[in-house]
Amino acid sequence: MNASDTSDAICSAKGCREPAVWVLAWNNPKLHTPERRKTWLACPAHREYLSRFLSIRGFLKDTVPLAEWSAPDS
Ligand SMILES: [Zn+2]
Questions:
Q1: Greater pLDDT, 73 or 26
Q2: Could you tell me the distance, in angstroms and rounded to a whole number, from the CA of residue 31 to the centre of ligand 1?
Q3: Percent share of the chain, pLDDT over 90
Q4: Where would I find the H helices in 1-74?
Q5: Cα maximum dimension of the chain
Q6: What element of type H or E holds 59?
Q7: How far is the CA of 65 from the centre of ligand 1 (A)?
Q8: Can you spell out the DSSP letters for 21-46?
Q9: What pLDDT sits at residue 71?
Q10: Is there a contact between 13 and 49 (Cβ–Cβ < 8 Å)?
């Protein structure tokens, strides 16, 4: 992901079509190597819901404003 493709970023919550403003970076240790980061996008209304979903499973690593998010090697 880079700055040019964040303008149409849509919230990852099921059924939500709101523009995303947060990036939730997560990792499932049963499926992913420790360095791997999956990302979910969240609108303001769903940030809390999605981050709680991930954090109660121990998956959530980071929550970053979309404007500040950059892929590790971009
Ligand atoms: Zn949403």
A1: 26
A2: 25
A3: 81
A4: 47-56
A5: 32
A6: none
A7: 14
A8: -EEEEE--TTTS-TT--EEEEE-TTT
A9: 66
A10: yes
